[in-house]
Amino acid sequence: MAKVESVHDFLKGKTILVTGATGFVGKVFVEKILRVQPDIKKLYLLLRASNPYLATHRLQNEVIGKDIFRVLRDKWGADFGSFISKKVVAVAGDVSLNNLGIKDENMRSQMFEELNVIVHTAATTNFNERYDIAIGTNTMGAFHVVNFAKSCHKLEIVLHVSTAYVCGEAEGLIVEEPLHVNGMQKGSTKLDIELEKQLIEEKLKEFKAHNTDKEVITSVMKSFGLARANLHGWPNTYVFTKAMGEILLMKMKDTLPLFVIRPTTVVSTHSEPFPGWIEGVRTIDFVVVNYGQGILTSFVGNSETILDLIPVDMVVNFMIVALMALSKGLSKNFVYHIGSSLRNPIKLTDVVDAMYYYFKKNPCVDKYGKLMAVTKKLTITGANEFNQNKGSKLVKKTEDLYKTYSLFKGIFDVKNAESLRIVTKGLLMWMVNLTLIQRTLIGKTT
Ligand SMILES: NC(=O)c1ccc[n+]([C@@H]2O[C@H](COP(=O)([O-])OP(=O)(O)OC[C@H]3O[C@@H](n4cnc5c(N)ncnc54)[C@H](OP(=O)(O)O)[C@@H]3O)[C@@H](O)[C@H]2O)c1
C-alpha cells in the first residue's frame, strides 16, 4: 500500500483546477488550500464569465474579496495581492459548454499540460431551476469535466462534488454506492438521459417557433423539470439533475482517477478559518432567520426526523485529505457520504430547541434597533395538518423547499468515509466529535 504522506507535502507544487469558486463550498476550499500550502504551484479557478477581464473582476470581488479570506489577508498583509496574483489564475468559462467554455486555446493547452488535480463543485443549487439550465449545469457539467480531464497529461485525481440527496426517495440506511442508469427504474418508467435531453430540445424549439415570452419559458421549464424529477423518483430538479450527472460520470470515467463525495446539508464553518462563516441565507438558515425575526412560527416536518447537517470546513477538510488518499491509492471506493446522521444524529426537535434558546439569549434587531424577542418555540406540524389549516404563504414556501429534508426517513451510511478516516488517521484531526457541536447548539455544555 502507498505511504500516507502529509496533506502539506501532497499539495506542494500541485496545479489544481477548481470549478464553482464563487460558490459557498468552492470558496472555503480555495481559501484553505492557499492558507495551508502557500507552495501550491497554481490554482486555476473556472469562473462563469464571457471574457478573462470579467473573470478576473469576479475573482477579486466574489472570491478573494470576501470575508472568508480575512485570515489569509491578515497573514500576508501588504503582500496578499502579489501572493494571489502569483498563485491564482481566473479562467473565463462555463461548465455547461464543451471544453468547459474556455475559448482561449492557449489557456486550454496550458491547463492540459499542467493540471494535476481537478475539483468540480460548480452546480446550480436552486431546487426549482429551469430544467434546461439544471441539466446543462449539473448533468452535462459533469460530462464536460470528465471530457476535459481526459485531455490532461499529468492528472492524478478528479473530485466530483455531488449531494447525498441523489438518493431520491430512499429510506433507511442509505449506502455509499454509485448510481447506475440500469438501477434507475421507477415502476415501468426507466430513466434515459438522452431522452431527457431530447425532450428539452423539443420544448425549446417549440418556444422558438412560437416566439414565447421569456417569463413563460422559465415557468414552463421549471414545472417541466419538477414533473420529470417526480416521474423518475426524485423530489426536485436539483437532485434529479445531480443524480444524472453522477450516472454519466460512472458511464464515462473509464480509467480516469475519479471519485465522488456526497455531502448532506452543508452549514456554516465550525472553526476554520473562523467559526460561523456562511454565504448569505442558505439551506436551514432560511428557517432559522425567519424564526428569529418572528416571521415563521410553524414548520412542516416530523419532530423525530434526523437532520443531517455538516459544517462546510469539515466537508473541505475531507475533500483535501481524500484527494491525497485517493491519488495515492489508499482507498478504492468511488463514493463517500459526508454527513452526521449515522454517527451523531440530531433530531429536528433538538434544532427547534436550540433555535429557541439561542434567540431568547440573542434576539434579532429590526431596522429601527428594536429587539425582536421570540416567545414560543417553532411549532412542527405534519403535512396533512398543514393542508387542513391552509397555513401562511411563508409556511407553504418552507414546506415546498424543505419537506424532503424535514420529513426524510433516511440515515446516510459513512462506511467508506470512515474507512478513509482510518487509513489516513492523524490527518483527519478536523473530524471533531460532532456531538460536541450539537451539545453546544442545544445549550448542553457538559
Ligand atoms: N450547500 C449545500 O448544502 C450542499 C449540500 C450537498 C452538496 N452540495 C454540492 O456542493 C457543490 C457546491 O455547492 P455550493 O453550496 O457551494 O453551491 P453555490 O454556492 O450555489 O455555488 C455554485 C457555484 O457553481 C457555479 N456555477 C453554476 N453554474 C455554472 C456554470 N454553468 N459554469 C460554471 N460555474 C457555474 C456558481 O457560479 P456563479 O457565481 O457564476 O453562479 C457558483 O460558483 C455543488 O455541487 C452542490 O451540489 C452542496
TrEMBL record:
EC top class named in words: oxidoreductase
Family matches, as InterPro entries: FAR (IPR026055), FAR_NAD-bd (IPR013120), NAD(P)-bd_dom_sf (IPR036291)
Source domain of life: Eukaryota
Entry EC number(s): 1.2.1.84
Keywords associated with the record: Lipid biosynthesis, Lipid metabolism, NADP, Oxidoreductase
Catalytic activity: a long-chain fatty acyl-CoA + 2 NADPH + 2 H(+) = a long-chain primary fatty alcohol + 2 NADP(+) + CoA
UniProt domain Thioester reductase (TE): residue ranges: 18-319
A Gene Ontology molecular function term of the record: alcohol-forming long-chain fatty acyl-CoA reductase activity
GO BP: long-chain fatty-acyl-CoA metabolic process; suberin biosynthetic process
Family membership noted in the UniProt record: Belongs to the fatty acyl-CoA reductase family.
Protein name in the entry: Fatty acyl-CoA reductase
